[in-house]
């Protein structure tokens, strides 16, 4: 097949981009012709199709959204293009004319590309599969999290995002985003999409509960792990509580991800003279991350460290340094890459009992769960790990590997994906 893969970024910035490049590599190795379409950012990887990528109004605006340097003219253009991006429409049409694709696999488009991509694909009668790595179609904040709590009001009433100023806590931006949603909904953009693909059953249940998508074809395909070592190839992690417990967090450093919760839980344990250490991997340039970093610095301890962002080509080496990976999310995660990557390296996961995480981790099998947004519950679970012996830990490690092998196998992912492509 000739497959156009659409994502508004063509460089590694997080989990969605890891999937982008992994799926392109996998499909190419299976003999398909893969054609990317994206915006033309300076950080992009090289591609012979980059000549078809439209330039954004402001380069790097998505990275450093310092609005003081944006003129009112450009702000107007950004809002206008968020409704319908004519430049994107025309560039994608040129690419279609050049390659004559069989199908389009859309990953992330948002307001950067706009729903104009569906119009041009539909106009050319190209079947469309859309993968949802977040909840942007049914939540203005993408994560069903607002003011420190889970919020699902947008499912029944999208105007709630305006009432609560869900877009960057700005009334004007929330109104603009709501208007864009209403514009897309009135045009019934979802009817142009032949298949929706979701990584978790939790997301599947959420999407089909929304009236707008009741007639849509929704399929569940878990994210795959690009590299699955065998049990025998993994270096056995030495687990002896006498020498301390090593924990890691890998991901976005943000309030909804519960990083402060994890820091406070480890702080509780350190105050009890429990030998535990925590390394946090992720960009720490946001205001929230800087607050957490200062809080850790005030503790004057070497047991908690911020390590910065780690690229995917180094990720396996990172996980194998630790006994457990912790995912303390307060929000509805979809299917975190950190959970898959950790299990793929035989590292059990400690996660909050919420959303998809509650279904992905089985307590005492491939990890442990604690009550969401509960510091003492998390601290208690971590403390209990000191009573696990080497044999029990080895079983947990093997179970984590067997779980990811069963649920995130690359060949299974390919077979299911191609089956859907063939249907549509």
Task: Kindly summarize this structure in a few lines.
The chain is of the alpha/beta class. The chain has helices spanning 15-29, 72-83, 86-99, 110-113, 116-123, 153-156, 160-163, 171-186, 201-208, 259-271, 287-299, 315-319, 337-344, 357-360, 375-384, 390-407, 410-423, and strands spanning 2-7, 33-37, 103-108, 128-131, 145-146, 149-150, 195-198, 218-220, 245-250, 276-281, 304-308, 324-327, 349-352, 367-370.
Approximate helicity band: 40-55%
Count of separate structural domains: 2
Strand % is 5-15%
Q: Number of helical runs?
A: 17
Distance between the termini: 13 Å
Instruction: Indicate the CATH architecture of the largest domain.
Output: 3-Layer(aba) Sandwich
SS content category: alpha/beta
Describe this structure in words.
- The protein is built from 17 helices and 14 strands.
- The protein is an alpha/beta fold.
- Mean pLDDT is 91; it is low at 61-65.
- The chain folds into 2 domains: 2-226 and 409-423, 3-Layer(aba) Sandwich (Rossmann fold), CATH 3.40.50.2000; 241-407, Glycogen Phosphorylase B (Rossmann fold, 3-Layer(aba) Sandwich), CATH 3.40.50.2000.
- It has helices at residues 15-29, 72-83, 86-99, 110-113, 116-123, 153-156, 160-163, 171-186, 201-208, 259-271, 287-299, 315-319, 337-344, 357-360, 375-384, 390-407, 410-423; strands spanning 2-7, 33-37, 103-108, 128-131, 145-146, 149-150, 195-198, 218-220, 245-250, 276-281, 304-308, 324-327, 349-352, 367-370.
- Strands 2-1-3-4-7-8 form a 6-stranded parallel sheet, with helices on both faces. It has a 6-stranded parallel sheet with strand order 11-10-9-12-13-14. A two-stranded antiparallel sheet has the order 5-6.
- The longest helix has 18 residues, at 390-407.
- Helix 3 packs parallel to helix 5 (116-123) and helix 13 crosses helix 16 (390-407).
């Amino acid at each position: 097949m000739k497959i156009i893969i659409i994502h508004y970024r063509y460089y590694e910035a997080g989990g969605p981009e890891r999937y982008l490049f992994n799926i392109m590599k996998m499909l190419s190795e299976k003999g398909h012709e893969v054609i990317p379409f994206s915006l033309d950012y300076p950080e992009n990887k090289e591609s012979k199709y980059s000549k078809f990528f439209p330039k954004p109004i402001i380069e790097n605006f998505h990275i450093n959204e310092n609005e003081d340097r944006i003129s009112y003219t450009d702000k107007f253009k950004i809002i206008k293009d968020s409704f319908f991006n004519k430049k994107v429409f025309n560039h994608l049409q040129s690419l279609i004319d050049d390659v004559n694709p069989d199908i389009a696999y859309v990953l992330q488009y948002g307001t950067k590309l706009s729903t104009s991509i569906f119009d041009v694909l539909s106009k050319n009668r190209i079947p469309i599969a859309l993968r949802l790595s977040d909840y942007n179609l049914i939540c203005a904040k993408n994560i069903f999290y607002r003011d420190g709590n889970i919020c699902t009001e947008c499912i029944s009433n999208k105007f709630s995002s305006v009432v609560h100023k869900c877009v960057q806590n700005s009334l004007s931006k929330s109104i603009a985003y709501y208007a864009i949603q209403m514009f897309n909904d009135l045009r019934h953009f979802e009817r142009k999409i032949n298949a929706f693909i979701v990584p978790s059953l939790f997301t599947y249940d959420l999407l089909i509960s929304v009236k707008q998508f009741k007639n849509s074809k929704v399929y569940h395909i878990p994210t795959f792990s690009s590299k699955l070592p065998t049990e025998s190839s993994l270096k056995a992690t030495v687990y002896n509580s006498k020498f301390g417990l090593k924990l890691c967090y890998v991901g976005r450093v943000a309030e909804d991800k519960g990083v402060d919760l994890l820091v406070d839980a480890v702080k509780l344990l350190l105050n009890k003279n429990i030998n535990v250490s925590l390394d946090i991997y992720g960009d720490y340039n946001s205001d929230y991350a800087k607050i957490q970093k200062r809080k850790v610095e005030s503790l004057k301890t070497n047991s908690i460290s911020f390590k910065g962002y780690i690229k995917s080509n180094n990720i396996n080496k990172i996980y194998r340094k630790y006994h457990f990976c912790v995912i303390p999310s307060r929000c509805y995660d979809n299917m975190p890459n950190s959970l898959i990557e950790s299990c793929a390296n035989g590292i059990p996961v400690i996660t909050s009992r919420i959303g998809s995480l509650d279904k992905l981790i089985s307590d005492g099998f491939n990890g442990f769960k604690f009550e969401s947004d509960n510091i003492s519950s998390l601290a208690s679970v971590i403390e209990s790990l000191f009573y696990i012996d080497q044999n029990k830990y080895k079983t947990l490690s093997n179970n984590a590997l067997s779980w990811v092998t069963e649920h995130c196998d690359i060949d299974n992912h390919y077979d299911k994906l191609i089956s859907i492509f063939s249907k549509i």
